[in-house]
Design a protein that fits this description.
Number of helices: 12
Largest sheet: 7 strands, mixed
Distance between the termini: 114 Å
Order of helices and strands: HHHHHHEHEHEHEHEEEHEEH
Length: 405
């Protein structure tokens, strides 16, 4: 009997915990996961806020916040039912007025919206082309248009027309079919590289214009940062006077854009402001030689030193400067360093269709090394039609434009 009581007391004294139910374990795990996600969210936005304040400063951050709030409020306002209808009506009216100015209409103007039932002969085509050329227009022939026409005189145009005729069907995407075009393209790039004092091992490509050159420079920098540093939220820093093509690149390639003021009287980018904005997501610094709005050359030498110190690519937009910039010193004009003689400059865009007097649709993008150029390539090895590769945005390209460059 005593033993039975002792055993009972022992059982009562040693309480064995019951195992927790599966639902309790799941609830604890869910809470833990939620807390981790919240902590990551908090850290992410804390980091973004710190970088924003460090880059823009407290006052600049307030201005950016105010600008964003104002844009959001304006967008909401424009979306209101009554306002939206009125805005659509005004936009439609404006478009109609623009079409009236830009689309020729009236007596003597024929519009061809479908293929003719009978083919035109050569004389009809020539007559129509002459009529189109004689339409009322701003007289660029008298030198009254700035930034639109770069004219190399009639003798050059005649040579270009002959080159265009000879390579009318050429396409550099098929170098085995058109080896002459491939040779000319390589020589064009080599000549422009030499003008900009490129080092041994430099490389480049021809493009359809300055915009594509800038787009590809940004694309290359983005891919380089992703491949080498794992950057998934790329950012680039540009002067607020830089060409709008950088804004296009930011929109196309999902790159956050930081614009730095170019205050008077120099209208050159503030190097200190650029330096403050650099962080681990920065993929590219940009300078203009010169800028389109003011014709001012940014302090490329200072940007080069900054790029070297922070180990970042630096692109110099010389599309407008074209062949004038590298020849200024030879012509006896004062200038400043801006090309590959500066160690920090990694890429340069130069429009051959401006002061190189090539036909529209010609530009070059130059890289300090061939390795940098590979980041803009696209290759699809498993396409059902075979291996497909291109050097840039375009696949097929007009070999005639390369020949007439």
């Amino acid at each position: 009997m005593a033993n039975s009581r002792a055993a009972l007391n022992l059982r009562n004294g040693l309480s064995i915990p019951k195992p927790k139910s599966t639902s309790n374990i799941f609830a604890i795990g869910t809470d833990l996961l939620r807390n981790i996600l919240f902590l990551l969210f908090l850290l992410r936005w804390t980091r973004k806020s710190v970088l924003q304040i460090r880059g823009r400063g407290p006052f600049g951050t307030l201005i950016d916040a105010y600008t964003s709030l104002r844009r959001l409020s304006y967008a909401i306002f424009l979306g209101l039912p009554g306002v939206r209808t009125q805005v659509k009506s005004q936009v439609a009216e404006t478009i109609k007025k623009l079409e009236g100015k830009l689309v020729p209409r009236g007596p003597g103007v024929s519009r061809y919206l479908t293929l003719p039932k009978e083919a035109w002969n050569d004389q009809q085509v020539s007559a129509e082309l002459e009529k189109l050329g004689d339409m009322k227009h701003t007289r660029w022939e008298d030198g009254r248009v700035s930034g639109a026409v770069y004219h190399g005189e009639d003798s050059l145009i005649n040579v270009q027309v002959e080159a265009f005729r000879r390579f009318m069907v050429a396409n550099p995407i098929h170098p085995d079919v058109f080896p002459g075009v491939r040779k000319m393209e390589a020589e064009i790039v080599a000549m422009v590289l030499a003008l900009f004092n490129a080092p041994p091992g430099a490389a480049g490509v021809t493009t359809s214009g300055g915009t594509e050159s800038i787009l590809m420079a940004c694309m290359s920098a983005r891919q380089k940062a992703y491949t080498e540093r794992g950057v998934t939220e790329p950012e680039m820093i540009i002067p607020d006077t830089a060409h709008a093509a950088f804004h296009k690149a930011a929109a196309y390639f999902n790159i956050k854009l930081h614009q730095v003021a170019c205050p008077s009287p120099t209208y050159s980018v503030s190097i200190k402001a650029v330096s403050r904005l650099i962080n681990s997501n920065t993929i590219l610094l940009v300078g203009s030689a010169p800028s389109f709005p003011h014709g001012i050359i940014d302090d490329i030498a200072a940007l080069s030193r900054l790029a070297l110190r922070r180990r970042l690519p630096l692109h110099v937009d010389c599309c407008l400067g074209s062949f004038l910039m590298p020849l200024l010193s030879r012509a006896g004009f004062p200038t400043q360093p801006f090309d590959f003689t500066l160690k920090g400059v990694t890429s340069i865009s130069c429009d051959t269709h401006k002061y190189g007097f090539a036909p529209k649709g010609n530009s070059t993008l130059l890289y300090r090394t061939a390795a940098l150029r590979t980041y803009q390539y696209f290759i699809s090895p498993d396409w059902s039609g075979g291996v497909y590769g291109s050097i840039g945005i375009a696949g097929s390209r007009p070999g005639a434009l390369i020949a007439s460059c």
